[in-house]
């Protein structure tokens, strides 16, 4: 399926899928934090690669990211992306550290663990909803330029085109963004041949003028 | 002096005194070509090693090492560069994440990109003057057409010229 020709109807279906995954991820984070985490502002966007990099704050912007490769009934990459200010705010919430010392090993492992939990619970919900077995790789953490992290994450999709469908969930805590930058996201980047399988699993493969 | 920006899977050529830059190379490789007599500089942001990986016949040639580098060479020649004088520099090809097990070939895409760029340059008989490749960090590069110097910047590292 060509990702550039996806219909509005199918984007809505993907948004539904995203809400289910992101909702479960937020629930896991809420119980970890003892506060209300929310990821319901989810969007599904079809964007060229360079647009995705801009969407994440620009190629040179430093971000923290937890990455996992998803294999199984559908395949793709999943990224939990945070700005440095959001990450420091989350570390503060979880450890009580002032954040003034920047990123300590403990702070980084907090982000790694949060990413791990969010990706794991997102994938579990997706797997239950679609009725597919889905296996994430062990999530890995990097702190570097957004362009470097995202372009790597798009390389498999790059075999088929220069556009990707980004399924984005935006994180907030107690109804507020973590920091002023409002930039903690869970990105699902399905491989192009996965879309057809998602629509088929939901019985909407021939809907929406296709 | 203008700075021309090259995005993911894009290329460009500049003339003295302009420079050409690409931001946030991770597993991608920035290949630069330079004719020091005419002071013409070219750059392409390669994402994948080979057009054999492309699905479908209609693909962006600037994305794959084996089509991107020969195309950039042709573009340089159209701008007046002399093929015999052109020399290359490379940067990028990092491994941004480390995962266990099943995702191995995916992770090594950076190293495969670097290898493919070296091979295609060698086939075109273009010498590689210098490179800053591998590692696990992102890089921003800028090629200055007046000198042919390639500036490499990374977060938390000294800026360097290769």
Helix/strand layout:
The complex is a heterodimer of chains A (210) and B (162).
Chain A: H1 8-33, E1 37-48, H2 49-55, E2 62-72, E3 76-83, H3 84-95, H4 105-130, E4 134-136, E5 140-145, H5 146-153, E6 163-173, E7 176-177, E8 184-190, H6 194-201
Chain B: E1 3-5, E2 11-15, E3 19-25, E4 29-35, E5 40-46, H1 65-78, E6 87-92, H2 104-107, H3 109-123, E7 128-133, E8 139-144, E9 150-153, E10 160-161
Parallel strand pairs in B: 1-3, 6-7
Antiparallel strand pairs in B: 2-5, 3-8, 4-5, 4-6, 8-9, 9-10
Rg from Cα of chain B: 15 Å
Low-confidence stretches of chain B: none
Strand residue content of chain A: 25-35%
Radius of gyration of chain A: 16 Å
Report the top-level CATH class of chain B. Answer: Alpha Beta
Parts with pLDDT < 50 across at least 5 consecutive residues of chain A: none
Secondary-structure-based class of chain B equals: alpha+beta
Principal-axes geometry of chain A comes out as globular
Explain what the structure shows.
The complex is a heterodimer of chains A (210) and B (162). Chain A has 6 helices and 8 strands; from the N terminus they run H-E-H-E-E-H-H-E-E-H-E-E-E-H. Chain A has a single domain, classed as 3-Layer(aba) Sandwich (Chemotaxis protein chec), CATH 3.40.1550. In chain A, strands 1, 2, 3, 4, 5, 6, 7 and 8 form an 8-stranded antiparallel beta sheet that branches. In chain A, helix 1 crosses helix 4, helix 2 crosses helix 5 and helix 3 packs across helix 4. Chain A is α+β, with helices and mostly antiparallel strands and 210 residues long. Chain B has a 5-stranded mixed beta sheet with strand order 1-3-8-9-10, with no helix packed on it. A 5-stranded mixed beta sheet of chain B has the order 2-5-4-6-7, covered by helices on one side. In chain B, 20% of the residues lie in helices and 33% in strands. The longest helix of chain B is centred in the last third of the chain and has 15 residues. Chain B is of the alpha+beta class and 162 residues long. Chain B has one domain: 60s Ribosomal Protein L30, Chain: A (2-Layer Sandwich). The chains are: A alpha+beta (210), B alpha+beta (162).
